[in-house]
Target: Methanophenazine hydrogenase cytochrome b subunit
Amino acid sequence: MKPKDNPMVVERYTVLDRTAHTIHAAAMLLLIITGFKIYAGWDFMSFHNARALHMIAVPALLAVNWILIPYNIFSATEGGVQEKIAHFMDHYVFGPEDAKRLKAIILNFFGKGEYPAFTIYDEVSGHYKTKLHPLMKILIVLEGTAIFVIAVSGIVIYRLDWALLGLPIGSWILSAGDLVAPAFNMSSLQFYRALHLLMTYFFVFELVVHVGILEFNPHVWKHHKTIFWSGKEDLSDSRYAEIVKPKPKHLPDSELWHDSSEKAPEALKE
Model:
């Protein structure tokens, strides 16, 4: 949606998008800090407080990633199931065009060619075709998988006999771990603790890549203000934004003759 006072400014993120990202970022940071306190015994707060904050951040992170973000994705476009799937594929699935952009980014790093746009706005439909760095589309899949793994492993670390609606979820998870853990010379619980810690290190790695590398360019820092506060993007900055313009309409031959010369049909007769 474009404001009337500046047609080059568009809404990049809705209020719900910004809310989801802010809660996600805050919950993730809180989980990493309190998690390392619980694991390594950092002396900046009590174990009780760290565990309590950890347990508060867990449902917040899962609710955002498994409820709010999917809702935002599939409510962002009009139309039926086919249109929503196409929107999801364009925005969040790494495809051939993303591979081309990623190759150009790598070449640009070595001083060959220009940095390609990863924000692509379709002026015809009035919506973004994509607004993610191509590498982020890969990280999103890895992050989604890591969130699932760390949630499952966290259940048995929290409580071995944890149940939901009478279903012995904790026992099922431990039984599944018994199939894999012996290969690492571990018990099921030891295996899940190691897996939980490994996923924590992955989130630290992702945070460094996402903020410290992908965004380590002063021209891209404007997106931090966009996703946390304003939600607006100025497309007039063409360094990282590309606008897909409507194709010029093809005029019928009769209209072309009328515009260029009234004598065109007579000339053809001769």
Remarks:
- Residues 254-270 have pLDDT under 50 and may be disordered.
